[in-house]
UniProtKB/TrEMBL annotation:
Cofactor: Mg(2+)
Entry keyword annotation includes rRNA processing: no
Gene3D superfamilies with a match to the protein in the record: Alpha-D-Glucose-1,6-Bisphosphate, subunit A, domain 3 (3.40.120.10), Alpha-D-phosphohexomutase, C-terminal domain (3.30.310.50)
Top-level taxonomic group: Bacteria
Gene Ontology terms describing biological process: carbohydrate metabolic process
Pfam families according to UniProt: PGM_PMM_I, PGM_PMM_II, PGM_PMM_III, PGM_PMM_IV
CDD domains, A to Z: PMM_PGM (cd03089)
Region forming the signal peptide: none
Organism lineage string: Bacteria, Bacillati, Actinomycetota, Actinomycetes, Pseudonocardiales
Organism (species): Amycolatopsis bartoniae
Protein family membership: Belongs to the phosphohexose mutase family.
Alpha-D-phosphohexomutase alpha/beta/alpha domain boundaries: 8-134, 154-253, 260-367
Keyword Chloroplast included in the entry's annotation: no
Ranges in coiled-coil conformation: none
Listed name of the protein: Phosphomannomutase/phosphoglucomutase
Length: 451
C-alpha cells in the first residue's frame, strides 16, 4: 500500500475523492478503525455531510467496520457536532464523513472514541494509517450488523436543555448555512423558540453554489452582513460546512470576534460554576484570560487544535474552551466542539437583556487585532528564527515557543507566528492596544518573514 501521510492529517483524514480517497481505501480505514477501538466500543456510529460522495464513502467505511465483527449505527445526514452528540450519548466510537469547508471535490473522516474522545495522530490516527499501509488483517468471525437511527431530535433537545431560550425576548436572526449542515440542524434546534430565523442557503448542496462554507474568510460573510442590515435583524450566524463552527455578526453586520464570543460564553459558564477553569488557545485575545480572571475563573492557555484543547479540558476539568477559529468546546457536551451551543449562548445573553448585540459584546473587546495573515515561505523554521532573533534582544520583550513563536512587547502588544502543518505557510496573528500599533507591528514582522 502506498504512503498515506498526504491524507492522514493531524486530526482527521482528508483528500480529493477519486484521486486520494476511494471506497476501497475508506473500507480499509473502517476496518483499521474497528481494530483500534474494538476493545472499548461494541459498535461505531457513522454520520455524513451533504457532499455527493459522502453517503457512498460512509457505507464503505461501515462495510469495513462490520468486516471486523463490530456493529454499525448509521445516523445519516448529520453535522459534526451531531455525530459527537451521538457518540457521547450512546457511548460509542464514531466517524463523520465531511471535509468541513474544503471545496466539493474533497471529503474526509473525523473519528472519535466512545464518549466523543478525540482520535488524532497521537491518539490512534497514526496507528490506523500504519494498519492500512501494512494491510488490514482478515477477521474470521461473524460480521457485525448495521442499524439506522435518527438522532436529530435528541440532539436538539439536549442542546435546548443546556441553554434554555424559551424565555428570551423575541429575536430576529439571519442564519447563513452556506449550503452546509446548518441547514439540516438549525430548523430543528430553533423550532418553537421565540426566534424568527431568516434562512440563507439552507439547501443542502455539497457543491457550495453560493459561497464556500468557510466563515473564517471575510468574503464569505458578505451576504450575511448585507441581509442582517436589510431585514433589521438582531444578529447573524454563519456556520461552516459541517456546522461545528459558528461565526456571529451583530445588528450592524459587523463580525464579533471569536475571542469576544469565548469571553461571553466563559462568563455565562462561570456564573453557573464559580471558580471553574476555562481553556483558551494562545491566539485568542488577551482579553479572554483577563475577563475569566475578573469573573473568578482560572484561565489555562494551550496550543491551537482540538486534540490539545480536549486534552487540557480532561486534565484540568475545565467547563469550557474557545479558539480564535470559532471552535467552542463544552464539558457538558463531552468536551467536544459545537458551534450551535455557542450560538445559543450568544442568543440567550442577547435575549435576556435589552441592549443590542454590538453593545453587549463591546464589553468583551479590549484590543485591536490583525486577524490571521498567511505568508508562503521556502523555509518556515529559518524565517521564524529570523523573527525571533530580531525581537529577542530588545528590552522588555519576552518570547515562548509553546506553539510557534509568541513575542510579548512591553507596551502590551504581542504576536504569534506559527507554521502550517500542511502547507508551506507561516501564520501571523497580531494584537495591540490600538489599530495603529497593530499595523506597525504587522508590517515589521511581515518585512522579516517575506524579506
Amino acid at each position: 500500500m502506498s504512503d498515506l501521510s498526504a491524507i492522514v492529517k493531524a486530526y482527521d483524514i482528508r483528500g480529493v475523492v477519486g484521486e486520494q480517497l476511494n471506497a476501497d481505501l475508506v473500507r480499509d480505514f473502517g476496518a483499521a478503525f474497528a481494530l483500534l477501538i474494538k476493545p472499548e466500543s461494541p459498535a461505531v456510529v457513522i454520520g455524513h455531510d451533504m457532499r455527493e460522495s459522502s453517503p457512498g464513502l460512509a457505507k464503505a467505511f461501515a462495510d469495513g467496520v462490520t468486516s471486523q465483527g463490530l456493529d454499525v449505527v448509521l445516523i445519516g445526514l448529520a453535522s459534526t457536532d451531531e455525530l459527537y452528540f451521538a457518540s457521547g450519548s450512546l457511548n460509542l466510537a464514531g466517524a463523520q464523513f465531511t471535509a468541513s469547508h474544503n471545496p466539493a471535490k474533497y471529503n474526509g473522516i473525523k473519528m472519535c472514541r466512545a464518549g466523543a474522545a478525540p482520535v488524532g495522530q497521537d491518539s490512534g490516527l497514526a496507528e490506523i494509517r500504519d494498519t492500512v499501509e501494512q494491510g488490514v488483517p482478515a477477521f474470521e468471525g461473524q460480521p457485525g450488523i448495521v442499524t439506522e437511527r435518527d438522532v436529530l431530535a435528541d440532539y436538539a433537545a439536549y442542546l435546548r436543555k443546556l441553554v434554555d431560550l424559551s424565555g428570551i425576548r423575541p429575536l430576529k436572526v439571519v442564519v447563513d448555512a452556506g449550503n452546509g449542515m446548518g441547514g439540516h440542524t438549525v430548523p430543528t434546534v430553533f423550532e418553537g423558540l421565540p426566534i424568527d430565523v431568516v434562512p440563507m442557503y439552507f439547501e443542502l448542496d455539497g457543491s457550495f453554489p453560493n459561497h464556500e462554507a468557510n466563515p473564517l474568510d471575510p468574503k464569505n460573510l458578505v451576504d450575511l452582513q448585507a441581509k442582517v442590515r436589510e431585514v433589521g435583524a438582531d444578529a447573524g450566524l454563519a456556520f461552516d460546512g459541517d456546522a461545528d463552527r459558528c461565526f456571529v455578526v451583530d445588528e450592524n453586520g459587523d463580525p464579533v470576534s471569536p475571542s469576544a464570543i469565548t469571553a461571553l460564553v466563559a462568563t455565562r459558564e462561570l456564573a453557573k460554576e464559580p471558580g471553574a477553569t476555562i481553556i483558551h488557545n494562545l491566539i485568542t485575545s488577551h482579553a479572554v484570560p483577563e475577563i475569566v480572571t475578573e469573573h473568578g475563573g482560572k484561565p489555562v492557555r494551550t496550543r491551537v487544535g482540538h486534540s490539545f484543547i480536549k486534552g487540557e479540558m480532561a486534565r484540568t476539568g475545565a467547563i469550557f474552551g474557545g479558539e480564535h477559529s470559532a471552535h467552542y468546546y463544552f464539558r457538558d457536551f463531552w468536551r467536544a466542539d459545537t458551534g450551535m451551543l455557542a450560538a445559543m449562548h450568544v442568543l440567550a445573553a442577547l435575549g435576556e437583556q435589552d441592549r443590542p448585540l454590538s453593545e453587549l459584546t463591546s464589553e468583551y473587546k479590549r484590543y485591536e487585532a490583525s486577524g490571521e495573515i498567511n505568508s508562503t515561505v521556502d523555509d518556515q523554521a529559518a524565517r521564524q528564527q529570523a523573527v525571533k532573533d530580531a525581537f529577542a534582544s530588545r528590552s522588555g520583550v519576552t518570547t515562548d515557543e509553546v506553539d510557534g513563536l509568541t513575542v510579548q512587547l512591553p507596551d502590551g502588544s504581542w504576536f504569534n507566528l506559527r507554521p502550517s502543518n500542511t502547507e508551506p505557510l507561516l501564520r501571523l496573528n497580531v494584537e495591540a492596544p490600538t489599530q495603529e500599533a497593530v499595523r506597525a507591528l504587522t508590517d515589521e514582522v511581515l518585512a522579516i518573514v517575506r524579506g
